[in-house]
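[Q] Does anyone have a clean structure-token version of this?
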Amino acid sequence: MRSRVSLANPWARDEDNLRVLRALGIGSVIVVPLIARGSVLGALTLVSADSGHPYAPADLELAEDLGARCAMAIDNARLHRDARSAGGVRRHPDYLASRRDAAENIASSLLSA
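[A] Here you go.
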């Protein structure tokens, strides 16, 4: 599955939908699949109302990177939930501190990207 950069027109289902998209001022759209371990978890949709500056290939590259990170975070949260419900997650203070540190590292890397 490949992401793509597109103007609003190809997204319109019909003329009424196209009028709504134009009324909203949608100029450019990027839709990136959220894929983790071979499964599609959802989609990240970015919409720009600035029709004078459509998304560029660099924007798509950034969106794909963000989508991959989001998919990994969702997958990890699901794995954590499953492990927790199965009794596999310890609640020891050292374990919780290591998880907090990992979360801070992920947040830091996302903010610096």
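[Q] Thanks! Anything notable?
[A] Confidence is low (pLDDT under 50) at residues 4-8.
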